[in-house]
Design a protein that fits this description.
alpha/beta, 6-stranded mixed beta sheet
Length: 291
């Protein structure tokens, strides 16, 4: 089909895993009632963003995928006839963990998972303590309503990840996200950071001629030291923002997007045609040092 209705659930989280899961399910039901066909949840939505500290106790939050949360969400997907994109903390084996997104089709079937490839390590974002980098490569998921790719948060800063996923046939790029401002920062810094975050993702839309859907958490965490900035948005294939959520509130939203615009924009702005793939080998180097 040429059009698809995308639902976004931007929410706050608590330390209660079951409470968060129930809130997410309620959000899925709300957007389904509004006609959503594909619903994207934010990164690690079943918990607080625990990577603000290096604490071994937080590994208890992890679960298998498929597992308890995907089982619950599969039933919801089947009941409502919607596709669900669910970002979870995966326990792959004893001592081996990933930041992973599962995709459930509209009949409740588990289509597979994507493991986050780029793992940050910054103050209050100590993800390397918890997550092994993904080893499944970049992925697309062929669902009832559309074929899309999923990338996760820190992945969104890397044009290579978006390009490869688009080249695999993704019609939409989804980015479940957890990013915010330190409350000690000034407003100018906050604005610059959000604008950079949105701009880089809109640039992926332009460069690849696909819609981009980014769903971020919102609210204060880390004892008030971090305000997750929300601002979830949808960009069309030429970088136009079709919808942007607030920085303050929990929101659910449904937007209809026209997948045929990919062909229109790629035809009129033929970046795919003019790629010089014969010249790109240096991109596989860490840095191009002088010989």
């Amino acid at each position: 089909m040429s059009t698809v209705r995308v639902g976004m659930v931007q929410m706050t989280c608590t330390a209660n895993k079951e409470e968060n899961l129930q809130k997410a399910i309620a959000g899925v039901k709300q957007v389904a009632e509004k006609g959503a066909q594909i619903v994207c949840l934010q990164e690690l939505f079943t918990s607080l963003y625990f990577c603000d500290v290096e604490d071994y106790a937080n590994f208890e939050l992890a679960e298998s995928i498929p597992g308890p949360s995907t089982d619950r969400l599969s039933a919801v997907a089947k009941e409502l006839g919607v596709v669900i994109i669910a970002s979870l903390f995966e326990k792959r084996a004893q001592g081996l963990y990933h930041n992973t997104t599962a995709v459930l089709d509209s009949d409740g079937s588990y289509l597979g998972k994507y493991r986050k490839m780029h793992i940050p390590d910054d103050p209050a974002y100590y993800e390397k303590f918890y997550f092994t980098p993904g080893d499944l490569g970049y992925k697309i998921f062929k669902t009832k309503f559309a074929t899309f790719g999923v990338l996760i948060c820190w992945d969104q800063w890397y044009p290579e990840a978006a390009r490869i996923t688009a080249l695999m046939g993704a019609e939409i790029l989804f980015y479940p996200t957890a990013i915010g401002w330190a409350t000690s920062q000034d407003e100018a810094t906050n604005t610059e950071q959000y604008n950079a975050w949105q701009t880089i993702q809109r640039s992926h839309a332009v460069a690849n001629g696909v819609h981009v859907v980014s769903v971020n958490r919102v609210g204060f965490e880390q004892d008030g030291a971090m305000k997750f900035w929300g601002g979830s948005f949808i960009s069309n294939p030429f970088g136009t923002v079709l919808y942007q959520a607030s920085h303050e509130l929990e929101e659910v939203q449904v937007m209809e997007i026209d997948l045929s615009k990919t062909d229109r924009y790629r035809t009129h702005w033929p970046f795919m045609r003019d790629r010089r793939i014969d010249s790109y080998q240096p991109i596989t180097k860490r840095y191009i040092d002088e010989s």
